């Protein structure tokens, strides 16, 4: 096949290399993709009358972005934002603190097999379910309000941070660990002087990133009653008060921008 | 070098200067105060009566969930198929839109700085708003159904794929670009023969990764009416049929794990 390409190229007919080498596999994938698309699109039913009806509402919504209304629901917005921000901060702190032992346990090179399996299990459960699903359960257990939201976000943070921390520990420089161990250091001292310095910059960077994610998530778990700005947003959308929803969305985008900007600074400073 | 002297006038090496030490203490104090303040805000908004009850509520919930009502599972195949379609079609639509945006946003391929900042605004606003919020908006505009879910997933994916892809484009090797330029190629030809082959593996990897995340996100879109298994979940929770909820949870768990496995395999094959 390559020989054929080269022969053609010598005659001045150059063709670029295909993305997938095997021609049969390539065609099989194309046919499979077309078949799936036909099947999938045929099962989607769209009520076009409803869509046409909704278009004017869509235009209203876009128009609302040109004149967002921060004033008339100011109290609700400020309360929701305060709840979201406090939830974000506490859940990140608690989540990261709990993720460190789980992450240590889930690193194959420093923990025994039973601990490893247990910690990997915790990580898998926490990562598989979307935050909103976890929030539903915690709202049932702890009642409505920001506490349920905080526990949800902390739980989700454990899975995220522990997985990345464990991967980081698994490819750390083992010679430093050996050097510290050779001095007769205890397990705790090895962790503190050989492992921690190597993973700390990444841990701080990831915590900042998770802070950002937690804020974004705190804007949606309010939909199921776990507090935060999401409840305000949900109410404003279902009451068609698009100017208020536009204001809330703009605030969310602003805060995310701000935190992204500052976290990139922190990351540059730690590395 | 941070050195202090003891009573005999001998220098003692220390890790930090006194100034750095005090600044460190101050930072910790500020951080802990902020955390406690946030905690107080949350605790004021919490009904502690419900929290004291949490253990009993939790065990009650588990006892209602077990045993799962397996006969309910056969009614879940259709919603599960919808969920997979939402994730897959949404990802396809999203990457189709993210592809040009990423080229406009990358410093080395963007036609004009103004275009670049406009593309960056698109990426940031798409990233800041969770797919569930997009779904809430689209359900009021397009009406409930799978279509709203697909578009919500697509809109959220633009930011994610766009950001990672434009970073990949900015990191390409400049020599192939120069080489193609030297043959007198047009702008589009340089894109297609020098830039595209270099970012194609990254692009495929990012898309598959986002597909895997989208499967997880699309399981909850039904909570706001955007189709998929979330609709069934919402109905089961509202009717307090917890033994059906546990079947749905298991189904989501297996699907998400499978999609994660597939995406990890594909990414390893590509890179």
Automatic annotation (TrEMBL), chain A:
Entry keyword annotation includes Nucleotide-binding: no
UniProt keyword Electron transport, yes or no: no
Domain ABC transmembrane type-1 positions: 81-263
Gene3D superfamilies the record matches: MetI-like
Compartments, record wording: Cell membrane
CDD domains: TM_PBP2
One example GO MF annotation: ABC-type phosphonate transporter activity
Membrane-topology descriptor: Multi-pass membrane protein
Pfam family, one: BPD_transp_1
Bilayer-crossing regions: 25-48, 85-105, 244-261
Keywords of this entry: Cell membrane, Membrane, Transmembrane, Transmembrane helix, Transport
GO annotations of cellular component type: plasma membrane
Matches recorded under InterPro entries: MetI-like (IPR000515), MetI-like_sf (IPR035906), PhnE/PtxC (IPR005769)
Family per similarity comment: Belongs to the binding-protein-dependent transport system permease family.
The name this protein goes by in its record: Phosphonate transport system permease protein
Organism: Franzmannia pantelleriensis
Automatic annotation (TrEMBL), chain B:
Every ABC transmembrane type-1 domain range: 80-263
SUPFAM superfamilies, sorted: MetI-like (SSF161098)
Residue intervals passing through the bilayer: 22-42, 86-106, 132-155, 221-241, 247-264
Subcellular location field: Cell membrane
PROSITE patterns tied to this protein: ABC_TM1
Record-level GO cellular component terms: plasma membrane
Keywords: Cell membrane, Membrane, Transmembrane, Transmembrane helix, Transport
InterPro entries: MetI-like, MetI-like_sf, PhnE/PtxC
Pfam families: BPD_transp_1
Membrane topology reported for the UniProt record: Multi-pass membrane protein
Example of a GO MF term: ABC-type phosphonate transporter activity
Family, per entry: Belongs to the binding-protein-dependent transport system permease family.
Name this polypeptide is given: Phosphonate transport system permease protein
Organism: Franzmannia pantelleriensis
